[in-house]
Amino acid sequence: MSLWISLHLPQLMLDACRTRWLSEPAAWALLSRERIVACSAGARALGLAEGMRRSGASTLAPQATLLERDAASEQALFDAAALAVLPYTPQVVQYADHTLLLDVTASLTLFGGPRALLRATRQAVRACGLQVQAALAPTPHGAWLLARHAAARARRATLKPATLSRRLDALPCALLPEAEPLADWLGGIGCHTLGALRALPRAGLQRRSSPALMRALDAAYAPTPLATDWFVPPPSYHIRHDLLERLEHSEGVLHVAARLLEGLCRWLQACRLAVTGLRLTLIHERRRHAGPQEQPDTCLALALAEPAWQLPQLLAPLRERYARLPWAGPVVAVQLDTQALAPQAPPSAQLFPDPGGSPADFRRLLDLLRARLGDARVLHGAAVADHRPENANVWAGADSPPCRQGLAPTPGERPFWLLDVPQPLPLQQDRPVHGTPLRLVRGPERIESGWWHGAFVLRDYFVAEDAHAARYWIFRERGQAAPRWFLHGLFA
User: Fold this and answer.
1) For 4, what's the count of Cα atoms within 13 Å in the CB-facing half-sphere?
2) What are phi and psi of 360, to 5 degrees?
3) Which backbone phi and psi does 396 adopt, to 5 degrees?
4) CA-CA to 359 of 20 to 30 Å: which in 33, 60, 177, 268?
5) For residue 89, what is the DSSP state?
6) What's the rounded Cα separation, in Å, for the pair 416 and 300?
């Protein structure tokens, strides 16, 4: 038996507009084609209702705020809700009347059973700033009807077909869109519920109604395939949040950016991707007569050494980098774009994690330090195409990647500690001495390089060992009348 979760968003149109307000007005409504399509509770208290014309609403409640419906913001918020529940099941459908249908048959055991999964998905949608009515039933259309009926919210989980039939029978016929053309006729014969509609003679109902009504009625009680496509996340992520009131403090902008990052993380999780570079753009208020000194948009680029897809991994370096930005003026919109993406790393296969953290944790620490201190103050070792040991490595910033081309791998041993200046070694019976006479255990490794810089070196390097088994990296200068030995490195 299959199980479906239905998440109905009854106030999606209002929620899509509400997210742009810093403080919600007492009474407001949305208009489409000069008619009200959604009202807040305050507007209903003043007598406004869906279907009312703009002129009538302005006359009845002049203090109410009337806004145009924003279909693009509604769809973006509807997509954000679908992304939020994709971690629980890949089979998500954006259905009619702003409802999400989830086939959770294969996810029950993983998330602790049907009721726990229902709570988790409902909470995920609420985290998007949406009001939600949820239901669970063995059929998708049955779950859709139960979720849309506000009075049925106390009975959300329906696991058995017999229980589903009993609860559907008590629902009003008006919940079926296919029954709206027959509302007067059904009311005239006293048929107000789905149970009463099913009790009518089927042959007579088929003659007096439409095939669509019969199909919708059968689909509510019996499993029927959905004639729609599964939700697929968009291939890229770009979002712009326009504010109806300008933001004049940095903390408010950071709060909006955090909300945008939450949506980005849901998209990354659904696509099994990670981000290595993103850009946050703060769009400032424009004057009516913009001159050459008009303040341009503020762009904050964030490059990560370790791919990230979780909110703390992105919010911490963004907060540090944002704190170093000078305040450039009021902000009227915030935009977030991904610059570079990578596949998500598989989870660690180790039974016991490293006590010092993983290499990924170390790279995220470097990201945080670069965001806090600046790229120029966090350096890393970079290889240079030069055989001379003192010139083969340099310290470089984050914008200077290591340069390894041009040289083959060095065959000899290299010490971890290299002296800044080679130290001359005395000789005892033609043997170099460092504390005790040194014994050559490996070598020579001949290096002849630097002639094009005017610093030509002719050296034979050896691995030497003293009487206490400590090892050193020494070299003998060639081309001299008397042999000269130098200490250049120490092995651990």
Assistant:
1) 31
2) -65, -40
3) -130, 160
4) 268
5) -
6) 38
